[in-house]
Structure formats: structure tokens, C-alpha cells
Amino acid sequence: MSRTLTLALASLLLVAASATASEKVLPRDAIDRTQFEATKAHLIAQLDDEHYQEISARDKAAVIAALDRISARLAKPPPMSDRDVVDTFNDQELVNNITSHAAAESRLYCERDMPTGSHRIRVVCLTIAKWMEREHDGQTAMYQIETNHASKCPACEN
Q: What is the C-alpha separation between 72 and 60, in angstroms, rounded?
């Protein structure tokens, strides 16, 4: 029963499942407020069940907080803003990640991005591991640029 609930919640909350860096179009009307509230109440009631016994109290609180944030966004009059759509997607991924016991680095996280030279905002969705890898690669590249510049410019060293 609780496995079916998790699958139902995942399918209800899942907006985009692809972990590519391509532009995403996150639907604004993917969640029905009344269905969400019923699913939320059932999930919160099930959090103390044996199926979720491995989830820490801190993670349970994070799930409840994420569900409350989604409820607050759904309570606003339509249409949802771009920020609300992205934040709702991220909260959905957090809930799905914790309740399905997935590794934290496999969770999808989306950010709004405006590429250099463009005024068009796009949504980039990557796994947490990919975001961390991109950050590490950027820091490594900056370090290499700095050390190459210092080695080629003896007058630059102080």
C-alpha cells in the first residue's frame, strides 16, 4: 500500500524526469490542488509508518516543509510565476528523493538561467552531482588559468 502511495505521489509530483542540460518547459497546471492536498495528508499520515522508518526526523521535517511550501504556492491565484514553477519542481524532487530513499546526489535541481548575450530566461535541470561537478570543473579551470598566467609573467609575481 505505501509503495503504491509513493508511486502515486511520484507520478503526481513528477514534472520532468530527464536529467539533461537541455531547456525544460515545466507545465504550470500539472498539479491539481485538491488532489495534492489529499496526497499530502495521506503522505504525512504515512511518514511514521514502518515503510518510512529509515527516514530521519530531520528528513521527515524537510518533507513536511516542502509539502507546505508547495501548498502555499498552489493556494496563490493562477497562473504560477516562473519562480514558483521552478521552486515547486525542486520541492517535488526533494520529496521524491527522501521518500524513495534515493541518493541525494541523484536528485534533480533546476535553476533559472539567462545565457550571456541573451535576455531570454531558460530553465536548466541537472542532478546535484552534475551541478557539483560543474562547480568543481569551473574552479579547476580558474586555478589553471591563474597558475599559467603567473608562470608566464614573472613580473606579475609579488
A: 18
Q: Rounded distance, CA 79 to CA 76, Å?
A: 8
What local confidence, expressed as pLDDT, does residue 141 receive?
Answer: 93
Q: Compute CA distances 141 → 129, 134, 153, whole Å.
A: 18, 10, 18
Q: Which helix (H) or strand (E) element contains residue 112?
A: strand 108-113
CB-CB contact of 91 with 70 (8 Å): yes
Reported as a single tens digit per residue, the pLDDT across 103-119 is 566 677 888 988 899 88
pLDDT (0 to 100) of residue 28: 52
Please give the single-letter amino acid code of residue 144: Q
For the chain, how big is the Rg over CA atoms in Å? 20
Report if pTM > 0.70: no
Cell readout for 86 is: 521552478
